[in-house]
Amino acid sequence: MPNDVQLSRFDLSQLDEGYLAKLPEEQLRALSAKLLADLKAAHERLDQNPSNSSRPPSSRAPWEFEYGGERPDQPEPGNDTDEAASGGDEEAQKPPEKSEGQPRSTKESAEQRGAGQRPGAPGHGRVQQLPIEQTHHHHPATCAGCGAALSTPETVRAHAGYLVIDLQPPSSERAGLEVVQSKHLYYERGCRCGHRSRAEPGQCPDGPAWTVRFSDRHLAGPMLVALICALSLRMRLSRRRIQEFFADWFGLQLSVATINQCWKEHGQLLWLWVFTSATTTVFTIGRRTQALLHGLLGSALAGWLMSDGYWAYRDYDNRLRCLTHLLRKARGLQESLDPQPRELGNALHQCLETVMDAVYAAREGPPPVALRAQHAHQINALFELCLRHAEAKHEKTRALARELLNDWDTFWVVLDHPELPLTNNTAERALRHWVIARRISYGTRNPQGSRAFTLLASVIETCRQRGHSPWLYIAETVRERRRGNPAPVLPAAVA
Prior knowledge:
The protein has 495 residues and is α/β, with parallel strands linked by helices. Helices cover 40% and strands 11% of the residues. It is built from 17 helices and 8 strands.
């Protein structure tokens, strides 16, 4: 269940007109507020797609692709980036080709064959049976409907349970580690108002930053996770070697998937940065800090810098923002269920469309004089609207209004310099492949691995930009370094 949902599926199954009719007005208003918040959050989550949120284009289902109608200079930028600077053009994303003999979409295929396991298909589950050493009971404390404290033990019944395998650490009375399996039971309890509430496993609200969810409902207990991390990080064992170790020394069968879910990015949140120009691309892995940014770009920067909304970029004067990213946020507000976000989303979307159309027209012919002055009225009206929404109750509306105010001048630089790009898709394209590679390989293990990864990525992308084979240059570099000679200089761009 998502962290922002207040009523669980079990809670909703008990709500009907009869229950609502029995509630006092004050409790009915409180329950209505929960239902309204959950309904709006659910609709906005269902309506998210790569054009109005941070979802990557790869998450779009085959039947959701749109054909035609997009400008060549206005694609949907991917969200595989952790940090992207500089900009460029990108062709619009094309739908995958349909091969003969395949269903038109996975959605149609699922509907035709029905849900559930296919008859005769082998099941997948844990087959090792260990004795249960301990049982832990979890009860709800308050009613999810009316909010009253629960104290009626005669209405208690278990609704869910799961097993946890953990290690008992050594003590003064016993040496060595011992594998212990415990059972956790979660109960539901009735209230005088007629509603039944359930205790649920705890979950860490990490948000979208992590791909691994930290929850109480996990086969591996804390001590077992700690040992897996020690074997992986300290002893540098692979997943298969860790699996072999537990089978040989503990008689414990763990799948590779279970082992992979026991830590987050090796305990560190590091970003893959990319900085790209017409002939050079540089990657680096590090924290999202002002020091790292200044270390790469220096205190002064010649030329223009296309960036996202990270505050550290504000130290550089010649900067402009990607308008496509801003359009995507505007679409998200336009599709909101609240009138306040829609007001800002509609105004921002209309202003950006007008500005981008003016830039396209200026590129096709002689640039008009005082292009910014021609659109000053609409831009000033948007500025006043952002001031009114800077303290809005709606979180995304407030955040976008403040983002616009903080970087106000950077969004309209293209009116003074129509030759500058409108998007940072050059950096997006350069970054996307390497982000996917990091996900497949589970990232790097130490600073040396990160440095090797980013150096190779920088060399490969730069050689391709300059019209040379990166593999010939890498082979020559290895040959010279083995001989103790300096690495050859990167080849110049082909004219």
